[in-house]
TrEMBL record:
<dbReference type="Pfam" id="PF00208">
    <property type="entry name" value="ELFV_dehydrog"/>
</dbReference>
<dbReference type="GO" id="GO:0006538">
    <property type="term" value="P:L-glutamate catabolic process"/>
</dbReference>
<dbReference type="Pfam" id="PF02812">
    <property type="entry name" value="ELFV_dehydrog_N"/>
</dbReference>
<feature type="domain" description="Glutamate/phenylalanine/leucine/valine/L-tryptophan dehydrogenase C-terminal">
    <location>
        <begin position="193"/>
        <end position="423"/>
    </location>
</feature>
<comment type="subunit">
    <text>Homohexamer.</text>
</comment>
<comment type="similarity">
    <text>Belongs to the Glu/Leu/Phe/Val dehydrogenases family.</text>
</comment>
<keyword id="KW-0560">Oxidoreductase</keyword>
<dbReference type="InterPro" id="IPR006095">
    <property type="entry name" value="Glu/Leu/Phe/Val/Trp_DH"/>
</dbReference>
<dbReference type="InterPro" id="IPR036291">
    <property type="entry name" value="NAD(P)-bd_dom_sf"/>
</dbReference>
<dbReference type="InterPro" id="IPR006097">
    <property type="entry name" value="Glu/Leu/Phe/Val/Trp_DH_dimer"/>
</dbReference>
<dbReference type="GO" id="GO:0004352">
    <property type="term" value="F:glutamate dehydrogenase (NAD+) activity"/>
</dbReference>
<protein>
    <recommendedName>
        <fullName>Glutamate dehydrogenase</fullName>
    </recommendedName>
</protein>
<dbReference type="InterPro" id="IPR054867">
    <property type="entry name" value="GluDhGdhB"/>
</dbReference>
<dbReference type="InterPro" id="IPR033922">
    <property type="entry name" value="NAD_bind_Glu_DH"/>
</dbReference>
<dbReference type="InterPro" id="IPR014362">
    <property type="entry name" value="Glu_DH"/>
</dbReference>
<dbReference type="InterPro" id="IPR046346">
    <property type="entry name" value="Aminoacid_DH-like_N_sf"/>
</dbReference>
<dbReference type="InterPro" id="IPR006096">
    <property type="entry name" value="Glu/Leu/Phe/Val/Trp_DH_C"/>
</dbReference>
Length: 426
């Protein structure tokens, strides 16, 4: 399906999020007449907060956890970005992910800047009550830095709508009034938006659909493999399945299932619904997650974690096109190999941007105290995704660059213009 793979040196070690983000910034800047000072400014975060969070465990003992919140760039509006609970959370990762949020908000033309953060903890080792106490204390530690017009967190790895409800309640109690707009991704009953949980996967489906149509592929003849059948992957797979595409493989953390005739994605429960259901599903063939990435398919959607496509396996990828569902699944070295091989990569900052876009809708609903119907949310999301896709497509065609470069060019152009217009405080 693709040309013969070129040889490439393997990566000595895993590339960090901030290294990848800076390389992508520099590639985009090379195509634009942007002041070097602005580019240098965007290589660094505005601020990074580090805090120690005490937690009383259920047995009465106390334990200390480390939390971070990185603010990258707020020239276009309040900071926006998720909070994750994961053992591998670091300051550097938070900075890199906050940079991606800046680009993501800009390419979607949302009035937000980029932020990210989290707590160094394995949430699976916490009881529900311990997770709640940790969240409420973290909210209190962050209170001077966040707010509906300052920084609006959202759920990420290891956090969910319930976490955001606790976070919002803790903040509101200290403020003396209910402030639903301080976070997004909440349950609808306390100010969350309908369609928010499904939005990242839905946007991956929309962008994949547009890319399939752009290359004039027959939707019903298009085969798709999805690594990571969680919230993002499952919703993307089901969206494409409903369009008529053939989703032949999906996976969870334990392994993958494969049916060359196509899976019924609505019959497979996603990993969030029933852990272990995906890899335990009765399918014609079982694969490893690594084998799924190398299947001979039209579209590969890595929707699990970052850095799964590297120099070590990029030559073995047989997909015609990659649509990034996860944040940062492709290293720079792998990206170069895909470019040399003619494999198109649609980047995460547009593909999964449905999450932050519907978070923007939720924020609007909260500050205006007016609820939107699910149908309106999905209609507005469709409109915004198509507007962003068309802007990226125009740059892709006009400049003869990769899809990733075209996406970053759109984002950087908007951010640079905002910096030029606002100027520099003396």
């Amino acid at each position: 399906m693709t040309s013969a793979p070129p040889t490439s040196e393997s990566e000595p070690e895993e590339e960090s999020a901030v290294e990848t983000a800076r390389r992508q910034l520099e590639r985009a800047a090379a195509h634009l007449d942007v002041d070097d000072g602005i580019v240098e400014r965007l290589r660094h975060p505005t601020s990074v907060y580090r805090m120690t969070i005490p937690l009383e465990r259920d047995d009465g003992t106390r334990e200390m956890f480390t939390g971070y919140r990185a603010h990258h760039d707020g020239v276009r509006g309040p900071y926006k970005g998720g909070i994750r609970y994961h053992p591998d959370v670091t300051e550097e990762e938070s900075v890199g992910l906050s940079m991606w949020m800046t680009w993501k908000c800009a390419v979607m033309d949302l009035p937000f800047g980029g932020a990210k953060g989290g707590v160094v903890v394995n949430p699976k080792e916490l009881s529900n009550k311990e997770k709640e106490r940790l969240t409420r204390r973290f909210a209190e530690e962050l209170r001077p830095m966040i707010g509906p017009m300052k920084d609006i967190p959202a759920p990420d790895m290891g956090t969910d709508p319930e976490t955001m409800a606790w976070f919002m309640d803790a903040y509101s109690m200290q403020e003396g009034q209910t402030e639903p707009g301080v976070v997004t991704g909440k349950p609808p009953v306390v100010g969350g938006s309908y369609g928010r949980e499904e939005a990242p996967g839905r946007s991956v489906g929309i962008i994949t659909r547009e890319a399939i149509d752009y290359y004039d592929w027959d939707r019903e003849d298009t085969t798709v493999a999805v690594q990571g059948f969680g919230s993002v992957g499952a919703n993307a797979a089901r969206y494409l399945d409903d369009l008529g595409a053939s989703v032949v493989a999906v996976s969870d953390v334990n392994g993958a299932i494969y049916d060359p005739d196509g899976l019924d994605t609505n019959d497979v429960e996603d990993h969030d619904e029933t852990p272990g259901m995906v890899s335990g599903y009765d399918a014609p063939q079982s694969l490893t997650n690594e084998e799924l990435l190398e299947l001979d398919v039209d579209v590969l959607i890595p929707a699990a974690i970052g850095n799964v496509l590297t120099a070590e396996n990029a030559n073995n990828v047989n997909a015609e096109m990659i649509v990034e569902g996860a944040n940062g699944p492709t290293t720079s070295a792998a990206d170069q190999i895909f470019e040399e091989r003619g494999i198109n990569v649609i980047p995460d900052i547009i593909a999964n941007a449905g999450g932050v876009t519907v978070s923007y809708f939720e924020w609007l609903q909260d500050i205006n105290r007016r609820k939107w119907r699910l149908e309106r949310v999905n209609e507005e999301l469709e409109t915004e995704m198509l507007r962003a896709w068309n802007a990226v497509r125009s740059e892709y065609e006009a400049r003869d660059v990769t899809w990733r470069d075209a996406t970053y060019i759109v984002a950087l152009e908007r951010i640079a213009e905002a910096h030029e217009t606002r100027g520099l405080w003396p």
